[in-house]
From TrEMBL:
Keyword Transmembrane: yes
Pfam family, one: TerC
Family statement drawn from the similarity comment of this UniProt entry: Belongs to the TerC family.
Protein's UniProt keywords contain NADP: no
InterPro entries: Integral_membrane_TerC, Integral_membrane_YjbE
The protein's name in its UniProt record: TerC family protein
Source domain of life: Bacteria
Membrane topology: Multi-pass membrane protein
Principal subcellular localisation of the protein: membrane
Cellular compartment(s): Membrane
NCBIfam families (alphabetical): R_switched_YjbE
Entry keywords, A to Z: Membrane, Transmembrane, Transmembrane helix
């Protein structure tokens, strides 16, 4: 162990931590949105367990990053899944009507965090894998794990701060859901299958795709929320 520590490529570790923090803002949004309806005690559990689970999956993804990014329709499917998650996170918690047990709510929040992070990490892991390329091959996976572990407290802290802001400014939930839609639109247009369409390979196409994704999540999410509220008021 001392020999391993002495041989650590610290510049690669620092790069991985910085990359994960720079690209982790959207992850903090997902964590905060998924945990906002939990009890205060469960919020801590949801944030910590969800973050750890997401970090573990991201570490596994790094090992397959290059292969995964070359698979047609993977990003497209991930984008569609992220659209669904964004719409779902805009909906009120069913637990308010006593339909969902506390333990189920916690597990649901953790699952949402892990799945969303998995989808959003498809591109992020490439940057992390690239930062580890300068290190000796037998050290790379350990550097990735170390770098991601170091970033956990900062991601957790960011999520906790965002939760407090959501309590004071609920409109942040709308912005967070829109951000997920924006990311989803970018993923879809960046799929290898789309590369064959030259007219979609432009910054304008990428921007429009992201904007449509954000508008779709917010529009559909609010429409479903309104319909559910009307049904609730009518006792349906």
């Amino acid at each position: 162990m001392p020999e391993f520590i002495a041989d650590i490529h610290w510049s690669a570790v620092i790069q991985i931590v910085v990359i994960d923090l720079l690209l982790g803002g959207d992850n903090a949004v997902v964590i905060a949105l998924a945990c906002r309806d939990l009890d205060p005690r469960q919020r801590v559990q949801g944030i910590v367990y969800g973050t750890i689970g997401a970090i573990v999956l991201r570490t596994v993804l790094v090992a397959f990053a290059v292969v995964l990014l070359d698979l047609p329709f993977l990003k497209m499917l991930g984008g569609v899944l992220l659209l669904y998650i964004g719409i779902r996170l805009l909906q009120p918690d069913d637990a308010e009507r006593g339909e969902v047990a506390a333990a189920d709510r916690l597990l649901s929040a953790i699952r949402t965090i892990i799945v969303a992070d998995l989808v959003m990490s498809i591109d992020n892991v490439v940057a992390i894998a690239g930062a580890a390329e300068n290190a000796p091959p037998h050290h790379r996976i350990y550097l990735v794990i170390l770098g991601l572990l170091v970033s956990i407290p900062l991601v957790v802290g960011g999520s906790t701060l965002l939760l407090r802001l959501i309590e004071r400014f609920p409109v942040i939930v709308l912005g967070g859901a829109g951000l997920l839609g924006w990311i989803a639109g970018g993923l879809i247009v960046d799929d290898p299958f789309i590369d064959r369409f030259d007219w979609l390979q432009s910054d304008l196409a990428a921007y429009l795709s992201s904007a449509v994704g954000a508008a779709l999540v917010v529009g559909v999410g609010l429409a479903i929320k309104s319909a559910r509220a009307k049904r609730g008021a009518a006792g349906i």
